[in-house]
Design goal:
Aminopeptidase; single chain; 6-stranded mixed beta sheet; 6 helices; 230 residues; alpha/beta
Length: 230
């Protein structure tokens, strides 16, 4: 299986009135890259190795049209038929706490059952895509693998959470004021304890998927089940 996160952002802002015009990308997607690095650390130091091998892919060019993941999915380092699943991390906003996780694309494959079960074991719950009209499942790096026939999910904390902590930044505020802006930087009130918990949740999901006895499969009624086939 392959775990992915994109390491690029959008460069220098031409429209910002701030002195600092660099789009730092702390949440988009340094938070995803950091989470993936920590997951790799957990796998490396685990007493029991997973039954399936795990590839960690840090791709670039996501903001330019999924270019890095598209190239890798087209020219993978192992046969594409041997890649059983992709779990992608893109912009986990770690400035607020929630016990709800979105797995974009989960309803299209058997990955949903494993993700949901793992979350419940960790006192979390899987919730439905709150914005299906935005077609987010086809807008990040997992879609490069989906087009090659690989079942995938894209994991983020709930974007519909009501934040009561006055020091936190809600997902709504982040998306309105910091997304693709220079202010997406380390001055945001990043909750590092929650960030560590988010790592553990993602590691548990990846570990359970890597050890699952059955290969993940698309649901027969999903449009995506038709992709990647000659």
């Amino acid at each position: 299986m392959i775990l992915s996160a994109h390491s690029d952002h959008i460069g220098v802002s031409k429209n910002s009135v701030l002195k600092d015009k660099i789009n730092n990308g702390a949440m988009d997607n340094a938070s995803g890259v950091s989470t993936l690095l920590e997951i790799a650390h957990e796998f490396h130091h685990a007493k029991e190795k997973p039954k399936r091998s795990v590839i960690f892919a840090f791709v670039t060019g996501e903001e330019k049209g999924l270019l890095g993941s598209e190239y890798y999915a087209t020219y993978p380092t192992v046969p594409i038929d041997n890649i059983v699943a992709n779990v992608n991390l893109d912009m986990p906003i770690l400035t607020y706490r929630t016990n709800e996780i979105i797995a974009f694309g989960a309803t299209h494959s058997s990955l949903e059952d494993t993700v949901s079960s793992t979350l419940l074991k960790n006192e979390m719950k899987l919730i439905e895509d709150p914005m299906p009209e935005q077609a987010i499942f086809v807008r990040s790096d997992q879609y490069s693998f989906v087009k090659q026939g690989v079942p995938a999910v894209f994991l983020v904390p709930s974007l519909a959470t009501e934040v009561k902590d006055a020091l936190a930044v809600s997902p709504q505020t982040f998306l309105a004021k910091h997304y693709h802006m220079p202010s997406d930087d380390l001055n945001l009130p990043i909750d590092y304890e929650w960030a560590a918990q988010f790592v553990e949740i993602n590691y548990a999901i990846a570990r359970d998927l890597a050890n699952a006895p059955e290969r993940p499969a698309w649901n027969s009624d999903s449009f995506f089940s038709t992709l990647g086939k000659d």
